[in-house]
Amino acid sequence: MHYELHGRPEPDAPTLVLCSGLGGAGAFWTPQLPALIDDYRVLVYDQRGTGKSPAQIPEGYSIEAMARELIELLDAVGIARCHFVGHALGGLVGLQIALMRPQLLQSQVLVNAWSSPNPHSARCFAVRTHLLRDSGPAAFVQAQALFLYPPTWIAENSERLARDDAHALAHFPGQDNVLRRIGALLAFDIEDRLASITTPTLLIANRDDMLVPWTRSQHLADRLPDARLELLDHGGHASSVSDTPTFNRILLEHLARQRDPATAA
C-alpha cells in the first residue's frame, strides 16, 4: 500500500498513524499535518483499493482484513508502537487492531466511529449505495459532501468542493471496491468484545453529524474501560476538515495527556 512518513525522521520519535474513513485516502489528513509534524513522526496511507493503492477488493472484504493489512504495513515500516487516529471506518480499523494487536497501540482517537450497526447510518449508506448503482459515480461523489459537512460550511466552500469532487471523480476506485468497503463497515459488530479493549481512547463526536449519530460515540465511551468523549456541537461528520483548529487542538491535548497525564489534566 502507498504510504508517506511526515515529520520527525528518528525511528524512536513518537509516532502517529492516521487512518481515513470510507474514501480511504491519506490526503484526508492534510489539514492535521502542520500541527503534528514538528513533534511527531506521522504515517498516512492509502487503504487497499483506494488512491495510490490500486487493487481489486475481494467479495466478503472486512474491517478485520483492513486491520490486518495495516498491521502488515506497520511491521514492514518498523513501527512497533504508535498513537492511532481513525475517522469513521478508520476508527473501526483502530478498534479491530486493539483486539488483534493491542500492544501496538499507545492510544487511539476514534472520530465519529461505532461498534455495531445502527438503523440511521444503515439508511444513509443504503441511499449512497443506490446512488452509486443507479446514478453512477458522479452522483455518488456529488452527494458525499452532504453526508460529511455542515450546510453552512458547504455553502461557504463551494469552489473548494467543486475541485474536491473533480479530483474524487477522476480517481474513483470503482463501484465494486466502494460497495465492498461499505459492506465491510455495515457488517462490523464487536459489541461483545468492547470490555476487553483497554487501549486509552479519546472519542470525538459531533452533534450535527448526519451520517453517524453522536450517541454511538457515547455508547463507546460508556463501554470501553479507558475512554473519554469530546462532544462538539458543530463540524458534521468530518470536523477535522470543517473545523480544523478545534479538531487539532483536541488531538494535541490528547497526545499531551498521554505524555504527561499530570500536567495535561
Automatic annotation (TrEMBL):
The keyword Hydrolase applies. Keywords: Hydrolase. Its EC number is 3.5.1.-. GO terms for molecular function: hydrolase activity, acting on carbon-nitrogen (but not peptide) bonds, in linear amides. Residues 14-119 form the AB hydrolase-1 domain. GO terms for biological process: nitrogen utilization; uracil catabolic process. It catalyses: carbamate + 2 H(+) = NH4(+) + CO2. It holds the Pfam family Abhydrolase_1. InterPro entries: AB_hydrolase (IPR050471), AB_hydrolase_1 (IPR000073), AB_hydrolase_fold (IPR029058), Pyrimidine_utilisation_RutD (IPR019913). Coiled coil: none annotated. Belongs to the AB hydrolase superfamily. Hydrolase RutD family. Involved in pyrimidine catabolism. May facilitate the hydrolysis of carbamate, a reaction that can also occur spontaneously. PANTHER family: AB HYDROLASE-1 DOMAIN-CONTAINING PROTEIN (PTHR43433:SF5), HYDROLASE, ALPHA/BETA FOLD FAMILY PROTEIN (PTHR43433). This is Putative carbamate hydrolase RutD.
